[in-house]
Amino acid sequence: MEILDTQQVSEWTGVPVGTLRYWRHANEGPPSFSLGRRVVYRRDHVALWIAAQERATQRGKPVGTESRASSSDSGKGSE
Predict the structure, then answer these.
(1) Least packed by Cβ within 10 Å: which of 40, 41, 49, 66?
(2) How many alpha carbons lie under 13 Å from residue 18 in its C-beta half-sphere?
(3) DSSP character for 59?
(4) How far apart are CA 27 and CA 56, in angstroms?
(5) At what angle do helices 17-25 and 6-13 cross, to 10 degrees?
(6) pLDDT over 70 for what percent of the chain?
């Protein structure tokens, strides 16, 4: 289990430290906990949170997911 502090999570995700602190106060953002006097994050929990954000906000279709039916339908109506 790899433990990250707030600064490390900020550097990894690009989310400002202040935003991470606010999210913790508001019970939002990646899961965190206190270890002694430090606020820390488990790397695997942050990665799962990132994946959940991706699923929840993703737009468009990932490359290579076009169905065969849509490509075979493209020739209809050209007669």
Answers:
(1) 66
(2) 0
(3) -
(4) 18
(5) 120
(6) 81
